[in-house]
Design goal:
Layout (H helix, E strand, L loop, with lengths): L1 E10 L2 E7 L3 E7 L5 H13 L18 E10 L2 E11 L4 E10 L2 E5 L1 H12 L12 H6 L1 E2 L1 H9 L2 H12 L2 H28 L2 H95 L7 H48 L12 H100 L4 H100 L5 E5 L5 E5 L2 E3 L6 H22 L8 E5 L7 H14 L3 E5 L11 E8 L2 E4 L1
Parallel strand pairs: 3-13, 3-14, 8-12, 12-13
Antiparallel strand pairs: 1-2, 1-4, 4-5, 5-6, 6-7, 9-10, 10-11, 14-15
Helix pairs in contact: 4-11, 6-10, 7-9, 7-10, 8-9, 10-11
Length: 687
C-alpha cells in the first residue's frame, strides 16, 4: 500500500485541504496543534471508520459544521483506489453517512461496515477485524502512536501476551482448542443422547421377535380358515347349481300355474259377462215391447208444416208488438199533453202579472187561456180513448197468437218425443243384436279357454312341486353363507391383527436399524472424542508452541538489533522474556523500563515497534500494508547522536513509504520530502 493523497473537508482544524504524498520517506513538520496528528487520524478514519471509545465523530467533525468528509487515494498492487467516508451532524450525535470506494474506476457505494469489509479484503487482513473496534494488524504494523507503544511495554505481561498473540494470529490456536472443547462437549452430549436412544434396543428386538412369532401363528390360522372357506364355497357352489336346476323347473311350473290361473280368471270373467249380457238382453226386450206398445196407433205429424206455421205466427206477434209499442208511445204523448194543459190552467189562475211585460193579467184573459187548454184536454182525451181501444184489440190478438203458438209447440214436442222413442227403439234393437253376437263369441272363447286349461293342467301334472325342496336347499345355503361370513370375519380380524403386527415389526425394524446405525455413530463419536482430547489437542498445542518460539526468537533478535542501533551503550543490554516483556540489564544489574532515561525509553519503544512490524509482516506475509510505515514522534527525548541513527534505521527498513511526524528539524535532512503545516485563525493548511 502506498498513499497518494488525502482530501479533508471540515475535519477538525481543516476546512478544505488536499495533501499529496510521494513514495519514500516523508516528514510531517509543524508546530504543536498545526494539524499533523489530525492527518493521521483522518487516514485511520477513512480506512476503518468511527470506533466507539477510540475514534468518535465529535473528535473529527469541525465545530459548527453540519458535515465533513475524508477522501484517500492509495495504491495496492498497481490498483488505483479511492476511498471516501463522510460525517453528518444529527440532532444528538455525529454519524457516518454512506461512502464509496473506487478500484480502477469501478465505484462501489456502501455503508460504513461494507466499506470496512472492502478495505480488509484489499489489505488481506483477517476478517475477524470486521466486528472488532480496531485492527491490531494495522495498529502494530502501519501506525501506532508512540505513547501507545510505550503503554504496551508497561502492561501486565499476561495482557501484553494476549495482545501480541492476537496481533500474530497465534490466538487462533487457543480458539481452535477452545472450539474443539466445545465440539468435544457437544459430541459427548450427542453420544449420551444416542446412548439413551439405543438403551431400549434389546427390548425392541425382543418385541419384534415376539411379533414375528405371533405373525407366524396368525398365518397358520389364516391358512386353516382359507381351507374351511374353500370347503364352504365348494358346498355352496354345489347347492347353488342344484338350486339353479330347481329354480328353472320352479320358474316353468310357476309360469304354468300363473297361466292356468289366468285362464280360469278369463273363463270366469267371460261367464260373468255372459250372465250380465243375458240380463241386459232381457231388459232390452222388455223395453222394446213397451216402446212398440206406446207407438202403436200413433199418427205421423208433418213437422215442417208446424214449423212454418210457428214462424208465421211469431212474425204476426212481432208486428203486433211493434204496433203496440207505437200505440203506447202515442198514448204517453196524449197523457203528457193533458198534464201540460192542466198545469197551464193552474198556473194561469195563480198568475197576477205577466212575467214578460209586467202587465196585470185579467180574468178574461185567464178564461180565454183556460178555454184553450180545455179544448186541448178534450182533443187529447178523445185520441187517448181511441188509441186505448186499439191497444186492447192488439193485446188480445197477441194473446190469441201466443195460445196458438203453445198448441203448435206442444204438437212439435210430441213429435220430437215420438221421434226420440223411435230412435231409442232402433238403438235398442241394434244393442240387442250386438249382445247376441257377443254371447256367441263368448261361448266360443270359453270353449277355447277350457281346451287350453286342460292342456296346461296336463303340463302341470308332469312337473312336481319343488317348493319344500327349494326352501330346504335355500335354507342350507343361507346357513352355509352365515358360517362362511363368520369365517371371513375371523379371517379379516386375523388380517387386521397381522397387518398391525407387520406395521409394528416394520416400525421396530426401522427403529432397530436406526439404533444400530446410532450405535455405530456412538463408536465413531468415542473415537472422535479420544482423538480430540489426546491427539488433536497435543498437535495444536505443539503447533502453537513451535510458532510462538519462532516468533519469539525472531522478535527478540530484531528487538535487540534495533535497540543496539539506537543505543550505543555496551553496559545497557536488552532482551525479551517468554511473555515478550523487555528485560533490561544495566551494568550487569536488572533495571526496570521506567528507570531508563527518556531517550532510552523512546529507543526501547521504537525498537519494540520496529521489531513488531517486521515480525508481523513476516508471519503474515500476504498482507498488503508492508510497504508503508507511520512513525509518530519517534525521536522524543533522543540525543543528537540517537537522532542521527534514524537515518540508518530508515535505510535498513527498506519500506517504500515512511511517514514521520516529528518536531526535530534535524530529521529533515534524512527524508525525501518535507510537508509543512501551520494553523492560522484556527484553520490548518499546508505550506
Amino acid at each position: 500500500m502506498i498513499i497518494k493523497k488525502i482530501k479533508l473537508e471540515n475535519i477538525r482544524s481543516y476546512v478544505n485541504q488536499e495533501v499529496s504524498f510521494p513514495a519514500g520517506n516523508i516528514l510531517l513538520s509543524g508546530n504543536i496543534g498545526s494539524g499533523k496528528t489530525t492527518l493521521l487520524l483522518a487516514i485511520d478514519f477513512v480506512l476503518f471508520g468511527l470506533r466507539k471509545g477510540e475514534l468518535s465523530g465529535g473528535a473529527l467533525l469541525r465545530h459548527g459544521e453540519s458535515k465533513g468528509s475524508v477522501e484517500l487515494e492509495f495504491e495496492i498492487d498497481n490498483k488505483k483506489i479511492i476511498l471516501k467516508r463522510t460525517l453528518k451532524r444529527e440532532k444528538n450525535s455525529i454519524a457516518q453517512s454512506a461512502g464509496f470506494i473506487s478500484i480502477n474506476g469501478e465505484v462501489f457505494e456502501g455503508t460504513a461496515v461494507e466499506l470496512k469489509q472492502r478495505v480488509l479484503e484489499l489489505f488481506n487482513y483477517p476478517m475477524d477485524s470486521l466486528t472488532k473496534s480496531k485492527s491490531l494488524v494495522y495498529n502494530y504494523t502501519v501506525y501506532t502512536p508512540q505513547e501507545e507503544m510505550k503503554s504496551i511495554l508497561l502492561n501486565e505481561s499476561s495482557e501484553r501476551l494476549t495482545i501480541l498473540r492476537k496481533v500474530f494470529g497465534i490466538d487462533k490456536y487457543q480458539r481452535i482448542l477452545d472450539n474443539s472443547k466445545f465440539l468435544t462437549s457437544a459430541i459427548k452430549n450427542k453420544k449420551k443422547e444416542f446412548e439413551i436412544k439405543t438403551s431400549s434396543l434389546p427390548d425392541k428386538i425382543n418385541e419384534r421377535d415376539e411379533k414375528r412369532a405371533r405373525v407366524t401363528i396368525i398365518k397358520q390360522e389364516i391358512e386353516e380358515l382359507d381351507f374351511k372357506i374353500k370347503q364352504f364355497n365348494e358346498e355352496i357352489f354345489k347347492l347353488n347349481n342344484e338350486l339353479k336346476e330347481i329354480e328353472e323347473k320352479k320358474i316353468k311350473r310357476d309360469k304354468l300355474e300363473r297361466e292356468f290361473s289366468l285362464i280360469e280368471n278369463n273363463i270366469e270373467n267371460l261367464l260373468s259377462q255372459r250372465t250380465r249380457n243375458n240380463k241386459e238382453i232381457n231388459n232390452l226386450q222388455e223395453e222394446i215391447n213397451l216402446i212398440e206398445e206406446e207407438l202403436k196407433g200413433k199418427d205421423q205429424i208433418n213437422v215442417q208444416e208446424i214449423n212454418n206455421k210457428i214462424l208465421e205466427i211469431n212474425e204476426k206477434v212481432r208486428e203486433n208488438e211493434s204496433k203496440l209499442k207505437e200505440l203506447s208511445k202515442r198514448i204517453h204523448e196524449c197523457n203528457l199533453k193533458i198534464d201540460e194543459a192542466n198545469k197551464s190552467k193552474k198556473e194561469i189562475q195563480k198568475l197576477e202579472h205577466c212575467p214578460y211585460c209586467r202587465q196585470n193579467v185579467s180574468d178574461v184573459h185567464k178564461c180565454n187561456i183556460t178555454d184553450v187548454e180545455d179544448r186541448k184536454i178534450k182533443e187529447n182525451q178523445e185520441i187517448f180513448y181511441e188509441l186505448n181501444g186499439k191497444e186492447v184489440e192488439i193485446e188480445n190478438a197477441i194473446k190469441d197468437f201466443r195460445i196458438e203458438l203453445d198448441s203448435l209447440n206442444k204438437q212439435k214436442s210430441y213429435f220430437e218425443l215420438y221421434k226420440f222413442k223411435q230412435d231409442s227403439l232402433q238403438k235398442k234393437y241394434n244393442k240387442l243384436n250386438e249382445l247376441n253376437e257377443e254371447q256367441n263369441k263368448y261361448k266360443i272363447k270359453i270353449g277355447e279357454l277350457n281346451v287350453k286349461k286342460s292342456e296346461v293342467n296336463k303340463e302341470l301334472e308332469l312337473i312336481p312341486d319343488f317348493g319344500e325342496k327349494y326352501s330346504n336347499i335355500k335354507s342350507e345355503i343361507d346357513k352355509l353363507l352365515y358360517n362362511e361370513k363368520k369365517l371371513f370375519s375371523e379371517r379379516a380380524s386375523d388380517d387386521k391383527e397381522m397387518n398391525l403386527f407387520n406395521e409394528t415389526i416394520k416400525r421396530l425394524d426401522k427403529e432397530i436399524e436406526n439404533s444400530e446405525l446410532i450405535k455405530k455413530k456412538i463408536v465413531e463419536y468415542s473415537k472422535l472424542i479420544t482423538w480430540f482430547e489426546n491427539e488433536f489437542s497435543n498437535l495444536i498445542q505443539l503447533m502453537e508452541k513451535q510458532i510462538m518460539l519462532k516468533v519469539h526468537s525472531d522478535f527478540d533478535s530484531l528487538f535487540k538489533e534495533w535497540f543496539m542501533i539506537l543505543v550505543s551503550d555496551d553496559n545497557l543490554k536488552i532482551k525479551l522474556d517468554y511473555d515478550f516483556t523487555p528485560l533490561i540489564q544495566q551494568n550487569g544489574y536488572d533495571t526496570d523500563y521506567l528507570h531508563l532515561s527518556g531517550g532510552e525509553r523512546t529507543a526501547a519503544a521504537l525498537a519494540y515497534r520496529l521489531a513488531l512490524n517486521q515480525v508481523i509482516n513476516t508471519v503474515m506475509s500476504d498482507i498488503n500494508t508492508k510497504d508503508i510505515l507511520i512513525l509518530d514522534e519517534p525521536t522524543d527525548g533522543f540525543s543528537e547522536e540517537q537522532v542521527d541513527k534514524i537515518r540508518l534505521i530508515l535505510e535498513q527498513l527498506g519500506v517504500k513509504q515512511v511517514i514521520i511526524v516529528s518536531h526535530d528539524p534535524k530529521i529533515e535532512s534524512f527524508v525525501d520530502k518535507v510537508i509543512r503545516f501551520e494553523k492560522v485563525d484556527g484553520i490548518s493548511r499546508v505550506l
